[in-house]
Design goal:
The chain has 346 residues and is α+β, with helices and mostly antiparallel strands. The chain is built from seven helices and 17 strands.
Length: 346
């Protein structure tokens, strides 16, 4: 059993970081269910969802993701009572579960979390407290940590689903050009490639939807740490997008939108290749009316000493886009530079 305990201001958070933290999880064969970006929230004890605590939880997890062309909530929260939870196996098998437990006999307020308690993959979080004041102290301290744990679980679950089908030919093409592995979802095909660039695209057209999802990968020589700065990342992206990504109207091309919602960057330390910088933002099309969100990761490939950027972008007018970005994000977070095939290096 692996449990990490952190004592902060007299409060305790217990975080199980491995699936083996629950001795019985290896016996669980059930596959977790539930919608993507959804949390089942259970109110236990004397509390009801029609309360300040209930409002606080819903408002936090359903806050708008502002790095999209139209705001979408980070998660949707399905609120139920403890009685409903206990009397239905359906809820036990959800992948994200948050249990709010108010009990006056609790001496030390705690946040406890475990993986794969009733299904796999699954993240369950308990917030245990005796009074409202303790809850708000706990929640303000650990809300971002809890959000990240649910977010990480979504990436794992999405990747498990997408592994059921992959474009192996496109994957081999990527490996030959860039010398790293990445599972390319089956719906994507190669749209354009050269010795330093690969564009993969998926398109769904119907009467009610016009969806295009794109994955771009490009490389360039690594010269300095400054190449990880936002200005340099935007500059590199605009150069590549103008050269390779054209719109349906002749002369149109993609660029990074910086006027209204500038891109944001952050370092991600637990990326498969030690150090990477994530950039999120919006793109639009010069000479056309297309646009949407994108997410990218830039890292140094230790096999080639080339700076690599992998990016996913979405065009899905009047429809939600976050779930498609999540799918591509999950692909990026499971890339690998190990155990490459015997394909010749570029």
């Amino acid at each position: 059993m692996k449990i990490n305990s952190l004592f902060i201001s007299g409060l305790l958070i217990l975080v199980c970081l491995t699936a083996g933290c629950n001795q019985n999880t290896t016996q669980k064969a059930e596959v977790s269910g539930g919608k993507t970006n959804e949390i089942i929230a259970v109110m236990k004890g004397s509390l009801t969802w029609d309360s300040k605590i209930g409002d606080t939880i819903i408002q936090y997890f359903e806050q708008a993701d502002t790095m999209l062309s139209q705001p979408e909530e980070l998660f949707s929260v399905a609120t139920i009572t403890h009685q409903q939870f206990e009397t239905s196996n359906f809820f036990f098998h959800h992948h994200n579960i948050l249990i709010i437990n108010k009990d006056t006999s609790i001496v030390k307020p705690t946040v406890e979390t475990k993986e794969n308690v009733w299904a796999t993959p699954q993240r369950v979080v308990w917030i245990n407290f005796a009074d409202d004041s303790s809850f708000f102290t706990l929640f303000s301290t650990y809300q971002s940590t809890i959000l990240k744990m649910f977010d990480d679980l979504e990436i794992i679950r999405t990747n498990n689903t997408m592994k059921l089908g992959s474009n192996q030919l496109a994957g081999l093409t990527l490996e030959k050009i860039f010398q790293f592995k990445m599972d390319i979802p089956a719906g994507f095909s190669v749209a354009r490639q050269d010795s330093n660039f690969l564009w993969l695209t998926q398109r769904v057209e119907s009467k009610s939807q016009d969806l295009t999802a794109g994955i771009m990968i490009w490389q360039r020589p690594y010269n300095s740490e400054n190449q990880f700065s936002m200005n340099e990342l935007v500059k590199s992206r605009n150069t590549i997008a103008r050269q390779y990504i054209s719109g349906p109207i002749q002369g149109s091309f993609m660029k990074t939108s910086v006027e209204f919602i500038p891109p944001t960057t952050k370092v991600v330390s637990n990326f498969p290749v030690d150090y990477a910088v994530e950039m999120r933002g919006l793109w639009d099309m010069v000479g056309d009316f297309m646009g949407g969100p994108f997410i990218s990761y830039t890292f140094l490939n230790p096999k080639t000493d080339q700076l690599i950027t992998v990016e996913g972008f979405v065009y899905n007018p009047n429809h939600k886009k976050r779930v498609f970005l999540r799918q591509m994000q999950s692909v990026f977070w499971h890339l690998s530079v190990e155990n490459l095939s015997d394909a010749p290096s570029k």
